[in-house]
Each structure stands twice: as structure tokens, then as C-alpha cells.
Amino acid sequence: MIKLSVLMPAFTKPVSNGLIAAAAILLCLLIMHLSPWPTTSNQAYLETIPTRSMTYRKHFISKHIWNVQSRVDWKPCEWWTAKPLTGFPQKSTGYIKVDCYGGLNQMRRDLCDGVDIARLLNATLVLPDFEAASYWNDTSGFADIFDVDYFIQRTKDFVHVVKELPKELASKKPVRVDCRKQKGHFDYIESVLPSLTKHQYIVITPAASQTPDRHPVFAKAARCHVCFKALRLVPAIQKMGAELLQKIPQPILSLHMRFEPDMIAYSRCQYNDLSQSSLDAINSARNGRTIISGDAAVTWRKRGKCPLTPRETAFILQALGIPTNTTVYLAAGESLLESKDFTSIYRNSYTKSSLLDKASLMAMRGNSRAALDYYVSINSDAYIGTYFGNMDKMVAAMRALNGQSKTLFLNRRAFAEAILKGLEGEKLAEYLWETHSKALVDGRGSALPDCFCMSNLTNSS
Predict the structure, then answer these.
(1) How far apart are CA 41 and CA 35, in angstroms?
(2) Cα 413 to Cα 303: distance, rounded to the nearest angstrom
(3) Which of 376, 264, 362 is nearest to 330 (CA)?
(4) CA-based angle 288:412:48, to the nearest 5?
């Protein structure tokens, strides 16, 4: 705290108490005017977010977010649903295998992008191996999650898919081609096709930010069909998913909450108002990643880069008028931190581990468990995502495909900006309501890329 005596000159004559008080008030106003945040450091202010502004009068909310009428709808684009797919040429340029790495829905995205590339190059696609990082603790293969025969049957008219390489290539070491810098159609023709035709078998790493809009329609259409029409969970997972769904009281709000140690470590955000066990778990997961601090932390949080805590999530849901007696299915990993901050408010919360037989659940690998969350989420009455990640995008797309409109993503950026403006209680709740309801009206609350197009609803008010 800056001392008043440092900023004010010493007076040689006695000064009245009233004058000193007036000077102090003017000084405080000056400091507040010059600083965009409170007089504590920006980082210290950010660290107080979880404990401030989290309560408001219960009678405040008289609205419900699902009563908001959207002016638009998201549906599969006609350019891939209304027209027959371009047939695959008789002669293949070679065999492509996709490096699928990460969580279930990230690997699914990589596979869809790989189909796009294979079709673009007239190549034959070899079923991928799923290679999870150590912290996923998973060894699931493609056939453990998805119905292989169904996949091949659904893709046979527009892309060649094989389970294994021919014998003459199976023993050869594949040439690895990094496609992460390739963007448009001609990038692949010029950089990837020569390696494919020369070696006849390559393994590719798709770009994390693939730009299929720059590819020909026949390749984009193949990608959309595979992603949303050809990938079906194996019967065993579907059966367990259906059993899980039946055990949850109806109607169900599926909430995909992302507040696991690896997620927080990856975000590089600071969270100090957590339990010591949570902080220890986060620090163990950092693996050398530095925490963003100072003014950069303010900018980072304002960009919506920091996952919402369970406490913040509960506050936003209440601001959106979702009753605290709602049945909530927590589609989250077993390592979810601070979950009691949410379940103490939304007491009718369920997880797969609380409903399924422990032995059966333990026998499932990580990606199979994630597939259960996916199954419940695409079949629930409503879905809310706290972080617009790979699972959220896939679930939102499948729900749009099935005509389910109650899908929403919480706006981390708006929440951070409101907190940094000093909004609290009812004012904060009202701001969050206006932000999310407007996004839902305009079709931005569950915006979908690539294979889905926005259409106006003629009967909306």
C-alpha cells in the first residue's frame, strides 16, 4: 500500500482534519483513475476470482436459458448430404496411415482429417493405431472403440479402407510425413504425393489446424461423411452407454467439465484458491510448463484461455436459470479437481463411476470410458460444454445432426472480462445471462464449423 506521506508534501502550517480527508479521497480517486485494475497487482487480483462474486440472491433468477428462442439453426450442409459422392479412382496412389494421438476425440478428428488427405491424394487408408500419451494411460486400438466393419462398409464408395497392409509392404518401415504445415490442396499435391508414389506407404501427422475449406469438395465431402456417418461405437460400448443412460434420472443435462490437472497445466493459468491436493496435482502435471504471470496473465485470461473452475461453472449455470435440482451428468475424467464445489450446489450430479459396476468400469481403458461420456452426451436432453474442445465440437455436431437444439458452450472470455470489470453478484449474473442468451439467439452458442451450415428459422420470434 502506498503511504499518503510519501505522495503529499510536508505542511509547515497546521492543516485541518477535513482538508486531510479531502486530500486522501482525491488521491484515491487519482490512483483508481490511473490503474485499470485494483491497486493490488494484476496477478493477485486474478487469483481472487474464485472467491469473489460467487453468490447472489436466490430470487434473482426468473429466466431459463432453454426458453430462449434461436433465430438460426445448424444443419449438415447440402453440398455433402444432397449430392452423391465422387467415386474413388480404380488405381490407388499408395497406402496412407494416420498418426492418431491424444484423447479419443482428438484422435477421431485426426482420423477424419486423414480421410480428407487420403481422398485428396487418391490413396488407400490403412486403419490407424490409437497412440495415447502416458497421462491418458490407455492402449485402446481403433477396433476397441469403433465398429470396423461398419466403417469400411460406409466408406467403400468414396475412399478405399483396409484393415492391414499387403504382405509386400507390411514388413517395410514406413516413411513418416509431417503434414502439420500443409494447408491447401496444392500443398499436399506438391509435398506429400511425391513421397507416397515413391514409397507406396507413408504415415502422416495431420495438421492440428486443418483448413479443409481450401480442399476440393469431393475431399471435404468424404471427410464429413466419415466423421458423422461412418464412425459408430462398438456394440459393447453402446450397450454399456445405454445402461448408463437408463440409470440416470430424466431429464438429463450432460455437462462436460474440464478441470483436470493436465488441462490446467496445459493452460498455464494460475489457480491459487484451490485445495493443497489440487495444487500438488497441477504442479506434478506441469512438466516444465511455466505459469503465465503479470500483465500477460490478464490478457491470457481475457482471451478465454483459462478453464472454468467447478465453482465458477456452478455460478454461471445458476445465472442461466438452470435450477440447482437439475439432474446433471458430469462428463469428465476421473481426475476432475474441486468437484465438490459444483456438486454441493447441484446435488443431483452423477458420474459413470457413481453409477456403473466398479469392476466393469476398471476393466475399461481410458478411451472406452471417454466413449461412454460421449454416448451419454449425444443422447442427453441438454448438453453444456465448459471448454470448446474436440469432444465438445464432436458432440455438438452429432446433436445438430440429430436435431437436438439444447446445446451451449459457456463463454470463458465473457466471464473473465466481467470479473475484471469488477462485476459481482446480480450484476455479474445479469451480464452472463445477456451474453449467453444473445449468443444462443444469434446461433453462436453452439456454432459448428466445416460440415455444418447455418440456416434462418422462419418461425423464430
Answers:
(1) 10
(2) 5
(3) 376
(4) 70
Q: What is the mean pLDDT of residues 57-66?
A: 66
Yes or no: say if 142 and 149 are a contact pair by the CB < 8 Å rule: no
Please name the residue that has the C-alpha cell 516444465: 288
| Grid coordinates of 176 | 513418416
Q: What amino acid occupies position 377? A: S
Higher per-residue pLDDT: 456 or 246 = 246
pLDDT digits (tens, 9 = 90+) for 13-34: 344 455 555 555 454 444 333 3
Place 138 in a pLDDT band, splitting at 50, 70 and 90: low
- Give tens-digit pLDDT for 330-347: 999 888 999 999 999 999
pLDDT at 457: 78
Q: Which three cell numbers stand for residue 233?
A: 461405437
> Looking at residues 89-113, what average pLDDT do you find?
85
Q: How far apart are CA 305 and CA 284, in angstroms?
A: 20
Quote the cell numbers at residue 402: 440429430
Burial 413-438 (b: 16+ CB within 10 A, else e): ebbbbbbbeebeeeebbbbbbebbbe
Facing residues of 276 across strands? Answer: none
Read off the pLDDT of each residue in 81-109 and give the average, rounded to a whole number.
83
- What cell numbers appear for 144 in the block? 476397441
Beta strands at 349-350 and 382-385: parallel, antiparallel or unpaired = unpaired
Cell triple for 147? 465398429
Q: Report the alpha-carbon angle 11-39-295, nearest 5.
A: 135
Instruction: Give the closest residue to 329 by CA, choosing from 399, 381, 368, 262.
Output: 381
pLDDT at 134 over 50: no
Q: Which residue has the cell 464432436?
A: 394
Q: What is the CA radius of gyration of the chain?
A: 26
Check pLDDT > 80 for residue 137: no
Grid coordinates belonging to 87: 467415386
